[in-house]
């Protein structure tokens, strides 16, 4: 493999890891639902143009609810309520662990010793990072986001895996917007600010549109397994970007818990036949 083939996955890591502190900034000016709508509209339209169309239907709409609408709400709320956006990123990336668990029951895939150790380590790390004495609602919501992402991934594998991924994700994004619109009054706030609007649009361009284009190019060039393994750098680098952009320094407990989560996910991922991964 050439160095050039690794460029798309490096793009994935950069745009998705830097998105978490940018989301934190945007949420200073607008509610999570408003941010999600802007992000999905911008990203969905770019993917629509890039993919030259969309794929739609009932199965696709259910997939959009699981993979985008519900997930996006949990992601934004998790970042908003977490003390450090990188902690939210780490807990959301427990997704492969839950994919392994769900695959065992749904697809009867065997769970080897390495997977079992990975699941135990990752869940233990999530508990530590979330705070075992004082419940952190943002961390819990982020963990729920990881579970929702896993459910959406299982659904994608079962019903949508043969669809054109760019057109499918364009439909996911755009069809989620009308689902989110009735939720606008929930914790609504919006401060007219050029900075807030620009940051929200940047998130839509980078995390929602470019992130998916880079991701699927990575899967094509490197294969799903290698691309997924390298993507585990996202939550790790999100701590770096959170410090650079926001000045947020992780606590020792968050660092220990997050390391255990990533190590456990890596162990689990080594034995998973990956079929989907995203921000």
Automatic annotation (TrEMBL):
<protein>
    <submittedName>
        <fullName>DMT family transporter</fullName>
    </submittedName>
</protein>
<keyword id="KW-0472">Membrane</keyword>
<keyword id="KW-0812">Transmembrane</keyword>
<feature type="domain" description="EamA">
    <location>
        <begin position="7"/>
        <end position="130"/>
    </location>
</feature>
<dbReference type="Pfam" id="PF00892">
    <property type="entry name" value="EamA"/>
</dbReference>
<feature type="transmembrane region" description="Helical">
    <location>
        <begin position="196"/>
        <end position="216"/>
    </location>
</feature>
<dbReference type="GO" id="GO:0005886">
    <property type="term" value="C:plasma membrane"/>
</dbReference>
<feature type="transmembrane region" description="Helical">
    <location>
        <begin position="87"/>
        <end position="106"/>
    </location>
</feature>
<dbReference type="InterPro" id="IPR000620">
    <property type="entry name" value="EamA_dom"/>
</dbReference>
<dbReference type="InterPro" id="IPR037185">
    <property type="entry name" value="EmrE-like"/>
</dbReference>
<feature type="transmembrane region" description="Helical">
    <location>
        <begin position="113"/>
        <end position="131"/>
    </location>
</feature>
<feature type="transmembrane region" description="Helical">
    <location>
        <begin position="61"/>
        <end position="81"/>
    </location>
</feature>
<keyword id="KW-1003">Cell membrane</keyword>
<feature type="transmembrane region" description="Helical">
    <location>
        <begin position="252"/>
        <end position="270"/>
    </location>
</feature>
<feature type="transmembrane region" description="Helical">
    <location>
        <begin position="29"/>
        <end position="49"/>
    </location>
</feature>
<feature type="domain" description="EamA">
    <location>
        <begin position="137"/>
        <end position="269"/>
    </location>
</feature>
<feature type="transmembrane region" description="Helical">
    <location>
        <begin position="168"/>
        <end position="190"/>
    </location>
</feature>
<keyword id="KW-1133">Transmembrane helix</keyword>
<dbReference type="InterPro" id="IPR050638">
    <property type="entry name" value="AA-Vitamin_Transporters"/>
</dbReference>
<feature type="transmembrane region" description="Helical">
    <location>
        <begin position="137"/>
        <end position="156"/>
    </location>
</feature>
<feature type="transmembrane region" description="Helical">
    <location>
        <begin position="228"/>
        <end position="246"/>
    </location>
</feature>
